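Q: For a teaching handout, I want to show students what a protein-ligand complex looks like in token form. Below are the inputs, and the small molecule is BV8. Please produce the holo structure.
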Amino acid sequence: MSEHWQNKLEELARRCHDGARVVVLSGAGISAASGIPTFRGSEDHALWSRYRPEDLATPEAFDRDPELVWRWYDWRRSLIAESAPNDAHHALVDLAAITDVRVVTQNVDGYHQQAGSQDVIEYHGNIWAVRCISCTFADMDHRVPMPIPPRCPRCNDLLRPGVVWFGEGIPPAAAQGADEVVSACDILLVVGTAGAVYPAAGLVTLARLHDASVVEFNLEPSAITQRADLYVPGSAADTLPLLLEAPA
Ligand code: BV8
Ligand code: ZN
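A: Here is the structure, written as tokens, with BV8 included.
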């Protein structure tokens, strides 16, 4: 007897094969199978477990100790560079060959693009982007390791990661793009996020306002689960590929 969620997942696969418009909202959990620590599950990395992301991913932390913040980002950049997208990222690329799929990600690792997803909306920026805190210099910088702290090649002031810190606004183009695609979708797949960070988590409410089906793929229930029409338990690397199985 297959579980309830497996029957519902087959129905979802059929809707995708019938051309439903899909938007994906992904969080750190989609990259967990690539060995990239999540924000809440990073106790297995003792080096950083004494810090909370909310304490490091802030303009105040950077102003106070740019070297510490850059050591944290440099460590994460090296993990990302040493690993690769996983079956969950690849399943979304395969799904986009069957129906319209737009990815809105909270992650900064660039793995969706690396796996082949097009037009990815990076809600919180990209860890490979850098910009000067003083002049308009901005670029993609793939140096691993980075000089700590990296300096602007134009004015020699500090470079900062091109990510959105707590207390900073979402890049307007990303915010508008996400609102547009989420408002127009038939199905919102919420993958690997605890749903604790706003305004990203608010996109689930926006989808429901526009009568989209909300389906959560997560190892465990989250703040999203009670707002989802279906909760699919397990690792996204195992469960997202099930969407590709041709419907019976
Ligand atoms: C803003 C980039 C205003 C940097 C990030 C009090 C109440 C409500 C809100 C607030 C509040 N106080 C402050 C706020 C606002 C704040 C916020 O929401 N804080 C939270 C902590 C309460 N938000 C902001 O500050 C935002 N900006 O509001 O600005 C404003 C407006 C206009 C003008 C100026 C200012 C900006 C937030 C962006 C912060 N930047 N990232 C970086 O990466 O270094 S957030 C960062 O943390 C991630 O991007 C991500 O969004 C978040 C982590 O969340 P998740 O992705 O969900 O990851 P997490 O580890 O938490 O969970 C992993 C999940 O995966 C788990 O559920 C787990 O079960 C699951 N999982 C694990 N393995 C698997 C899996 N699932 C499937 N398969 C697996 N294998
Ligand atoms: Zn500069």
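A: Two things your students might notice: Residues 27-29, 32-33, 38-41, 53-54, 57, 106, 108, 124, 163-169, 192-194, 196-198, 200, 217-220, 222, 235-237 surround BV8 (ligand 1) (CB under 6 Å). The CA atoms of residues 183 and 206 lie 6 Å apart.
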